[in-house]
Design goal:
- The chain has 102 residues and is α+β, with helices and mostly antiparallel strands.
- It has a single domain, classed as 2-Layer Sandwich (Alpha-Beta Plaits), CATH 3.30.70.
- Strand 2 and strand 3 form a beta hairpin.
- Helix 1 runs antiparallel to helix 2.
- It is elongated and about 50 Å long.
Length: 102
């Protein structure tokens, strides 16, 4: 399963409204989980089973909660039983399809 999520606090004290410290704490939790993961400018994607991924997402959300009075969580899941390695596999298939069209 793949889970893409974005978590951010609001109502915090940062004068520039930046959330990078909060996001850094969340990403540290993801990376320390040992699950395959990738972070880009908008989302962090993790791969694993339902329970282990939801545990990581919950802990990352709780860590972000320390930075404000409210937390926004956006979550998208690709639930495909029996498949592993899709964090990179999907991208490899996409690149192959683009190359074959050229």
């Amino acid at each position: 399963m793949l889970f893409a999520f974005s978590v951010a606090p609001s109502g915090g004290d940062a004068p520039d409204a930046s959330v990078h410290d909060a996001v850094a704490d969340a990403v540290k939790i993801v990376r320390e989980s040992g699950l395959p993961n990738r972070t880009d400018a908008m989302f962090t994607t993790i791969e694993g089973d339902w329970d282990e991924c939801m545990d990581v997402i919950k802990r990352a959300t709780e860590a972000v909660g320390k930075y404000g009075t409210r937390v926004a969580l956006v979550l998208k899941a690709d639930i495909r039983p029996g498949y592993e390695g899709e964090l990179t596999g999907k991208l490899e298939r996409l690149e192959k399809a683009i190359e074959s069209e050229a």
